[in-house]
Amino acid sequence: MAGEAAQAAEYSQQALAQAQSSGMENLTTAGLIDIGNSYFLRGNLSEAEKNFSEALRLAQSYKGKRNEARALVSLASLRTHQSNPSEAAQLAERALTFYQQGGYRKETSQAYAILGHAYDQLGKYDAALWAFEDQLKIAQQVGDPQQTALSHEGLGVVLNHQQNYPAALAHFDEQYSITKTLGNNLVVGYSLMNRGTMLWQLGRYDEAEKGLTEALAIAANPGHEPYTELLAWIRVSKARLALSKRNLPVAMSESQTALKLAGSEFKAIAVQAGSTLGLAQSLAGQTAAGRKSCDQAVELAKTIADPLLLSHALLALAETALNADDAEIAISAAQELEGRLEMSRQHESQWRAVLIDALAQRKQSNEKKSSETSARASKILAALEAEWGPNNYKTYLARPDVQELLRRSNRTGL
Question: Which domains are present in the chain?
Answer without folding.
Answer: 1-81 (1.25.40.10), 129-221 (1.25.40.10)
